[in-house]
């Protein structure tokens, strides 16, 4: 967008030659968060687990119903690399309903006829949602994203 020879900046200069470029604070903040989340293997693993939980339930209406029966309040959201508000909403749903989501995963492992789904649900419930590192990462990332989301909205 800030390219002087093409893009939005060029178009603005064509309309008003005295215009100047001001970088977008929200965009820069999102780029920093994206780089932070992709520079640490623990963060990559954490966001991967959050996305796996969402993908497992959202890939079938029957699975989504199992989730809705166990977790009535907050709903899972897909992660976005540019919209961190969706990330905080998904993490918030898991953070404040961890036991209900774990129960939904275990229930899904029981009722599913697909062995891959059974295995994935059981592994997520047992080895991820009960893992101290995951729970700690969830708390830390929720606090970071909550603060960044507040700043982003005020920008």
TrEMBL record:
It comes from the Eukaryota. InterPro entries: RNaseH-like_sf. This is Zinc finger MYM-type protein 1-like.
């Amino acid at each position: 967008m800030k390219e002087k020879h093409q893009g939005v900046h060029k178009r603005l200069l064509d309309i008003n030659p005295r215009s100047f470029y001001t970088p977008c604070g929200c965009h820069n903040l999102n780029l920093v968060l994206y780089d932070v989340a992709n520079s640490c293997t623990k963060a990559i693993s954490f966001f991967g687990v959050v996305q796996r939980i969402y993908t497992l339930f959202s890939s079938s209406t029957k699975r989504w119903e199992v989730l809705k029966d166990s977790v009535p309040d907050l709903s899972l959201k897909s992660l976005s690399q540019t919209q961190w508000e969706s990330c905080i909403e998904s993490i918030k749903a898991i953070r404040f309903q961890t036991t209900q989501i774990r129960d939904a995963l275990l229930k899904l492992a029981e009722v599913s006829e697909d062995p891959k789904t059974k295995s994935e649900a059981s592994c997520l419930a047992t080895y991820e949602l009960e893992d101290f590192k995951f729970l700690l990462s969830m708390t830390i990332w929720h606090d970071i994203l909550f603060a960044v989301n507040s700043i982003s909205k005020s920008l």
